[in-house]
Amino acid sequence: MKVLKFGGTSVGSAARMKEVAKLITDGECKIVVLSAMSGTTNTLVEISDYLYKKNPEGANEIINKLESKYRQHIEELFATPEYKQKGRELIKSHFDYIRSYTKDLFTLFEEKVVLAQGELISTAMMNYYLQECGIKSVLLPALEYMRTDKNAEPDPVYIKEKLNVQLELHPDADIYITQGYICRNAYGEIDNLQRGGSDYTASLIGAAINASEIQIWTDIDGMHNNDPRIVDKTSPVRHLHFEEAAELAYFGAKILHPTCIQPAKYANIPVRLLNTMAPTAPGTLISNDTEKGKIKAVAAKENITAIKIKSSRMLLAHGFLRKVFEIFESYQTSIDMICTSEVGVSVSIDNVKHLNEILDDLKKYGTVTVDKDMCIICVVGDLEWENVGFEAKALDAMREIPVRMISFGGSNYNISFLIREEDKKAALQSLSNALFGEVQ
Asked: N or C: which terminus of the chain has fewer CB atoms within 10 Å of its end residue's CB?
């Protein structure tokens, strides 16, 4: 069985929902994970903001606008009086429920209940539409099986057990529809998966049922070997290793959140990125297979700050690096890149919230210099150190670009360059020409 996930833009209107319905009704049994219709979650956040500020009139105005929008979706989605009425009743019940929170104390718990309504509505609408089309569709309530533990991490044993119970209740279904993003926490309260959202849901479900493939459908045409908004003549990447995908995602590529594909990686289930606007395109396949001797893609991460700590006391001094890293840890600031020498260490960060405090603490150990408005360029592929010449090819492409730091060897799939943001376009184009020019 396959697991298919469709994001908010893929189900963003009645017309888009009908297109998704065509894609999923190919005769194969599958589980389909849906996000809220595009714009809904942001509007529910706005409603929650009014309720936090104890402004029920403002909240009700936004609620009424959103309900009116959904009523229009219902009229456009359904053809028969029976299902139009079912749709109207569905919308009324959910929005009456949201309105009930304008009368009482509003906390984080209530906010998460309100935010969950988007996914609950979109999945119910799709389920009704499939049934109207004569498809044996069943709604799998995510709140019955998707749970996180006391550390807010998914509980795979619970998910597998409870999901199989739900599937066994409806053995004859053609399509199972379920909600992405939402779950219950260890205390039984409605919560959400945060990082990766619906993609994470699809990956967890795929691992729980040992799916043959997980498909992530978006309005983006798979993964490209460079940023098509900046670089001329980019081309699609048809296959990535899970580690390559994680590197690209971390360094800014429009691809899956690194966390959300971990369950699929560990269960050895391939993930395919597909485009709802071009459903026949092959997309990008992510798996545990490596294409040997191949550079796959280049990505860039902006708004980076580089910090150098230089100290003669560092020479042969054990514990120096630990003291430096503990400062960043104490301010909950992650480090992207690190380079060391006998007399200093350079690091890069993307979170400057506590930069001044970090710099003050670092000055206890040496001379500190800072470079702002930097950018990390990440080259991803089969970069095992035995592969002679790959790093030289990347370095040669950067020969005209001033490079502040280079990181190579921390991963078998990545070589990274820290450069000024103003040099980003030139660096991406030069790397694209050098690494992919022959295949354009």
From this structure: C
